[in-house]
Amino acid sequence: MVMEEIQSYSDNYRSSSSSTSSPTNKPPSGPFFYLRKPGALRKPFSFEDSPEWDDLDIDPNIEEGGDSIHVATTTASPSLSKVNSGSLPSPSMLEGSSSIVSRKIAGATIVWKDLCVTIKDKRMYSDKVIKSSNGYSLPGTLTVIMGPARSGKSTLLRAIAGRLHCPARLYGEVFVNGLKSSMHYGSYGYVDRKDVLIESLTVREFLYYSTLLQVAGSLSQKKAFVEDAISAMSLGDYAGKLIGGHCLMNRLPCGERRRVSIARELIMRPRVLFIDEPLYHLDSVSALLLMVTLKKLASTGCTLIFTMYQSSTEVFGLFDRICLLSNGNTLFFGETLACLQHFSNAGFPCPIMQSPSDHFLRAINTDFDRIIAMCKNLQDDHGDFSSVNMDTAVAIRTLEATYKSSADYSAVESMILKLTEKEGPHLKSKGRPSDVMRIVVLTWRSLLTISRELNHFWICLVLYVLLTLSIGTIFINIGHSLSSVMVRVSAIFVFVSFISLLSIAGLPAHLEEIKIFTHEEPNQHSGAMVFILAHFLASIPFLFLISISSSLLFYYLIGLRNEFSLLTYFILNIFVCLLANEGLIMIISYTWLKVFPCCLTLVFMHVLMMLVAGYFRVRNDLPEAIWKYPLSYFAFHTYSVQGLLENEYIGTSFAVGEVRAISGEQAVRGSYNISSSRNAKWNNLLVLFLMAIAYRILLFVLLRFHIRKSFTSYRSSCWLLTSNKGR
C-alpha cells in the first residue's frame, strides 16, 4: 500500500508539473492553491480548515523624517484572523479612517545590494557562497530567507547582520535606513540557531541577569524591560519556572526555550531582529505559535529577518516576503504569493494539497537527484520510481533565468533604488553597563548557578570528602618515626594527584560556562576579560570550601605536625593547586567544547604530570629531554607536593641511634627532592599561583582573538566549499 501511494503521488506530481510546462498555461485552481490577483486580499496557503485573516497591502513610502511609513489599506474582511488577532487594525478602525494611515515605526529599513560572500580557499578568495543577492526588509514585516541545506541561508543572514566569520569575505553593500553603515550596539538583535540557556535559572532570572549585562539604567527600568520581553514572547506562564527543570518539574519545552532565546534579544528593544532558524527542532504546533508571536512582534514596527528550511502551509501564510536561495543563487525575492506565480510562470506550478515550501524545496534541492538515482532500479507492483524525474539543475537554471527577466526582479531593483536614494535617521548605539558592573553581575550569576547545580558542586564536594576519607584511612596511624617518612611522602603525593584528577568531574559545568560565553560575546553581552575575572572570583569560595574540607580530614587522619601555621599553609597549597588546575581545565574545555575529548585530554595530561612530579623518579634523575625539560616544570603536581613536604619536614630532625640525628630534609632526600631553605615552600606556592594566573592569561588570549572560532570557521567553510564543488 505504501508503494502504491508513493507511485500515485509521483504520477500526480508529474502530471501537475507537465500540464503547465509553458508560462502561458495556468495552474490548477482549487481550495488548496491560490494565486494573487491585482487588488485581491492576501490569504494563507492552507487547507480548508485554516483560519482567515485580514491583511494590508503595505506601500512603504519613506518620508523625509524617515521614521514613518504610509500603509495603504484595502477593503477588509469583516472577520479577524484567529491566528493574527490583535496584530493589525480591526475593521471598525479601518472604516473610520481614511485610506492612508500613518503609524510611527520603531524598526529600520534594511537593503542589501549585489551582496556576494566568498570563502577563503587556501591563499585566494575564489568560490562564492552567496552570489549577487539583492533584497530588502521593511519595518513591520517578516522577511524569510528560505532554501535547502547548504544553500547559503545562514551565511546571507550573517552577512546582512555584519556577523560573518573570519574566513569569509563580503562584497556588495548593505544599507540601514538608506545609509551605508553597520548596525550599532542595541540597534539590532541576533538569535542563533541553537538555544544556549542557563538551566539552573528561572526564565525571569535568566532575562533579568541578561538585562543587567546589556542595559544601562535604573533597576526599575531594567525590570520593566524584562516584563516587556516576557509579555512580548507570551512567557508569562513560564516566567517562574526553571529552564532546566528539576526532579519534580520538567524542563521547558523546545518552543518555550526558543521564545526565551528571542526574548533575551528583545530586552534591548532592537529595531531589527535577525533569527537563524526560529523553528529549529519545533513541532508543527509550537512552530505556528512561535510564528504568530513573531507576527505580533512585527506589527509593533520591528523589522524581522530570519532563515527557514521548511514550513507548514499555515506558517508560510504569515510571511510577507521570501528570498529563495539554492547553491548561493537567488531564485526569487518578493512577496510570498508572487513566488507561487513565479514558479507557475517558470513551468513548475504548485500541485494541489502540497505545501508551497515543500514544493519550492522539491524543485530546487539537488539532493533529490540522488534519491531519483537510487529509485531508478527499484520496482513495485505498478512500475518503477523513474517517473519522479524532475531535473533540479534544470529547474534551478529555469527559475533563475525567469526571475531575472520578470517584472518582480525589476520591481525589486526599483524598490532598492527608492529606499537608498534618501538617507534616513542614523541608528545610534545604546548605552551599556560598565565592565565593573558586568563583572559583578557575572560573578553573582555564576555563584547562583554553581550553588544550584547539584552535579557541579555538591556531588563533587561529597566525592572529594569520600576520596579524602579513603586516602586518610589507608594511611592512618603511620607515626612520626624515620621509617614512616617514605609512607608519608606517598600519602601526600597520592592526595595531591587524586584531588587534582577528581576535579575533572566538574568539566560539564565548565563547558556550559564556556558555551554561554561564546553565545553572549558576539552580541556584546560580555567580554573575554570580564568573563575570566568573573569566573575566577566565583570559583574562589567553592574551591576554598573543597580545599579546607579535604585538607582538614587528610591532615588529621594522617597525623601531620600539629601546628596552625603549617595547617594554614597546607590548605593554601591545595587551594592554589586546584585554582591552577581549574585554569587548565578551562583551556581544554574551550579547545574541544565536548565532554569526551576533554576528559581524554585532561586524564592524559594529569597522568603525564604525575609521572614527572618527582615521586616515581626524583626530578634530577629524569631524562633531561622532554621529561625534565619542560614537562616536569609544567606539572603543578611537582610544586604542590614539594611545598607540602617542605612544610612538613623542614625544621624537624630524626634520631639515628642514641647519639646521631639527621634533619628532615636529609630524611626525605632519598624519596623526593626538597630544598633546605625555610622560604622554599613559599616559593613553590608562588609558582603555583603564577601558573594559575598564566593559564587564565592564555585563556584570555584564546578568547580575545577567537582562535578556536577562526579555526572552526575555516574548517567548516572548507567543508562547505568542497560540498558545493561536488554539486
From TrEMBL:
Its main location: membrane. It is a multi-pass membrane protein. Pfam families: ABC2_membrane (PF01061), ABC_tran (PF00005). Residues 110-352 form the ABC transporter domain. The keyword Transmembrane applies. GO terms for molecular function: ABC-type transporter activity; ATP binding; ATP hydrolysis activity. SMART domains: AAA. This is ABC transporter domain-containing protein. It comes from Vanilla planifolia (Vanilla). The lineage of its organism: Eukaryota, Viridiplantae, Streptophyta, Embryophyta, Tracheophyta.
